[in-house]
């Protein structure tokens, strides 16, 4: 059953940092664009930290109003505001596993 607003300890899924793709900048940008596009379509976390309004302001400033209009060089303006508090992951997002929307935000299996 999907749960929301819980107080369980955050789960950190392992990163596949030994894979060559982990260091592929093109693959990184592609994944960031995918995730940013999901958040742009949702915007539920806008009040949680500065990362979200930064992303949404960047999208809203584009001519087409879409994530693909944001320069890749600006992606890290979003990332640098994340301090890994896990609030979005643990309390807001409907796309984390195991709920029904998996695997859109799922981490690689260990
Ligand atoms: S983990 Fe915390 S700081 Fe990072 S994006 Fe989510 S809410 Fe913001
Ligand atoms: S709930 Fe999930 S998809 Fe929506 S803005 Fe937050 S992290 Fe992004």
Mean pLDDT: 84
Rg, rounded, reads 14 Å
Structural class: mainly alpha
Number of beta strands: 0
Q: How many helices does DSSP assign?
A: 4
The hetero compounds bound to this protein are: iron/sulfur cluster
Helix content: 25-40%
Which word captures the global form?
globular
User: Main sheet, how many strands, which sense, barrel?
Assistant: none
- Stretches where pLDDT is under 50 for at least 5 consecutive residues are none
How much of the polypeptide forms β-strand, as a percent range? under 5%
In sequence order, what are the helices and strands, one letter per element? HHHH
Could you characterize the architecture of this molecule?
By secondary structure, this protein is mainly alpha-helical. It has a domain at 23-92. The chain has four helices and no strands. The radius of gyration is 14 Å and the shape is globular. The model has no long low-confidence stretch (mean pLDDT 84). The structure holds iron/sulfur cluster (SF4) (2 copies). The site of one iron/sulfur cluster has 10 residues, from helix 4.
In brief:
The chain has four helices and no strands. It binds iron/sulfur cluster (2 copies).
Features:
110 residues, mainly alpha, 4 helices, binds iron/sulfur cluster
């Amino acid at each position: 059953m999907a749960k929301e607003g819980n107080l369980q300890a955050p789960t950190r899924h392992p990163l596949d940092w030994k894979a060559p793709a982990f260091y592929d900048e093109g693959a990184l940008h592609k994944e960031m664009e995918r995730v940013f596009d999901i958040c742009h379509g949702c915007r539920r976390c806008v009040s949680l930290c500065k990362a979200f309004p930064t992303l949404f302001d960047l999208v809203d400033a584009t001519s087409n109003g879409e994530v693909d209009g944001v320069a890749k060089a600006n992606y890290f303006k979003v990332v640098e505001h994340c301090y890994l508090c896990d609030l979005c992951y643990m309390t807001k997002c409907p796309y984390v596993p195991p709920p029904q929307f998996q695997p859109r935000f799922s981490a690689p299996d260990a």
